């Protein structure tokens, strides 16, 4: 790059939550017209760093310099004023408004109180041209593809004079063609001097789009290099902290009878002809990119989504999932990817959150004793090393993501389910807690014989936990691996 | 340097959380109640007399009976606005039927009405899926019409049934005894039973409640039935107190009920609240009404005070929610 004006610089940024430090002094520098790829496993500290850049949270220590001016911390408005804009995987648009209206969302130009439609359209067209994006201005945003709507968000950022764009895994939900368009737009932005932080899980994208690579692990910056000097192996080693081949695979248990059997399951649009079985004490993973259909398959088995054809058998008996209530009474447990929406009761205690699925079992004449719940919590708090400083009565919302996830997992072990369906069980969970979670899943499978089916987009998770790995690509099973064949390169090759 | 923004970073929320835990949520309510009692004691010589307190409790008891299941509903994230009209209709039914067929049949008819109307609300909300605020707002409207219809727009006198509303076993009005019993039962149910805890879970996160296997629809249905039956009972008590069924007797009851519950710390977003809090809220509303009457404040001012009280209560609810968010 010809320009080297430094737009933003973080120095020694630290962040603690409740006395636990999650970022241990990270530096980051973005120049004008430069793309910095930010890599790291789940829980490495990427999202904390992004929140600091967005002004959502302030660092506990360290400096932030924007255009050479030093700040102790930004707030949301401060970050906006400085031209820092976020592009998230989730869309923040108004689907029922037009493309032109969305580009100006909330900041429509007016003349004397009326919206100046001509100015709005002209400027919207201008910015789309600048990005070389061809979308009709009058189309409703909701009628566009996800990738196009994401480009609209970038267009909106530009209208608001973005100098620095932070793109948080924008490609995760996009098709290959849409990713190409995104990269085109990014190179346009580069030539216009916009600096970008690009977060991704797809290593193959790094060499295509980035100038600098920075890898975070456990809250530390472990690698910062020119993108052209870094190999794929370098990045993987830096992310994992060891060589990818060095992973210890679990000892495959000898499974016995089939607990969960699925035959030609289709839902009519996201997945089709899924056939698989999970045996007693077995851990099977469905690996696929986000959007490939893995989580939808599990939701359908649990009765949260409709199926149009196919058959599900539990221990040989045909099971028609009609509602989650039915599934739980058939001893099927489900851990959702969206913890806040489907998993936890934020204002209730950890003990109650853990016991809620076992109330039928615990109740005597409809009464549930607090001590029974607290005992149950005690058991699993120890087995899962849940740290709740204020004990069983602490509200679950005050726990870290990892600890919350452990409580929700313990919920189903306490309920003694026969089938456990887990969607992205370690998303947003720090490295230490991940290890605890893997250990307990394996241990419970072995001891209680629960059949575990996991949907995940994290290949490292598959390698660490699966007896058997099925790979899902575009809603269909594309490969199955067992034993030593469960390794990263096989999985990634079969999933794309 | 003007551009430099520095934000105070909270060092460690543990300390603050601990300090907060020592003060129970109900402390400010108790303080407000005591202050009000002190103020009215100075303002009116009649206020601090046993007879007056008996009055306050007797007046609050009718509202209180309705408040118990309504607290359940609000904790579960629902609401029942039809309570006042349902009470009026049951009062009208009671007066008519008692005059024609006697007390037993009259009470049965009222119970039947409560059950039927509760099922009606339950079906519309849980099976058809209409928002409970709208469903019961509709009920509030059409039942008022029904109450007018039954008595042809007139008050219907009732004979020989004053005891329900006016009996005073051991010096305590019977409605107060009924209310106290229901409150105790309600508090135990909410705290210690699967049913009660499920109500908190549903209000705290309705989607998650489904996933963990709680039969949410059944529980909401049952709670609507309880609410309608309690309204019917309240209507019967009112009618007994007045010795007449009046279509206007339940007017504004829903306002008092919701005010008391929200004042008591229940969140309209669901998941938070308690019977103890509701009882405190009820006493605050009752003392305020009584005090204003004793001070000869005109009734329209009392109406204004009641309405403002609700707005103040929900504002506290919102402020509390905001504080909780920033702390997380």
Automatic annotation (TrEMBL), chain A:
GO MF annotations in UniProt: ATP binding; ATP hydrolysis activity
InterPro entries cross-referenced by the UniProt entry: AAA+_ATPase (IPR003593), ABC_carbohydrate_import_ATPase (IPR050107), ABC_transporter-like_ATP-bd (IPR003439), ABC_transporter-like_CS (IPR017871), P-loop_NTPase (IPR027417)
GO cellular component, one term: plasma membrane
Swiss-Prot/TrEMBL keywords: ATP-binding, Cell membrane, Membrane, Nucleotide-binding, Repeat, Translocase, Transport
UniProt cross-references to SUPFAM superfamilies, sorted A to Z: P-loop containing nucleoside triphosphate hydrolases (SSF52540)
SMART domains to which the protein is assigned, alphabetical: AAA
Compartments reported by the entry: Cell membrane
Main location per the UniProt record: membrane
Pfam families for this protein: ABC_tran
PROSITE patterns: ABC_TRANSPORTER_1 (PS00211), ABC_TRANSPORTER_2 (PS50893)
Name this polypeptide is given: Unannotated protein
Domain (ABC transporter) ranges: 8-243, 253-496
Annotated membrane topology: Peripheral membrane protein
Automatic annotation (TrEMBL), chain B:
The keyword Cell membrane is annotated on this UniProt entry: yes
Keyword Ligase: no
Record's bilayer topology term: Multi-pass membrane protein
Transmembrane segments: 27-44, 56-74, 104-125, 132-150, 170-190, 219-238, 250-268, 275-294, 300-319
Gene Ontology molecular functions: transmembrane transporter activity
Keywords attached to this entry: Cell membrane, Membrane, Transmembrane, Transmembrane helix
Subcellular location: Cell membrane
Lineage start: unclassified sequences, metagenomes, ecological metagenomes
Family annotation (Pfam families): BPD_transp_2
InterPro entries linked to this entry: ABC_transp_permease
UniProt region (Disordered), positions on chain: 1-20
GO cellular component, one term: plasma membrane
Major site of localization recorded for this protein: membrane
Protein name, per record: Unannotated protein
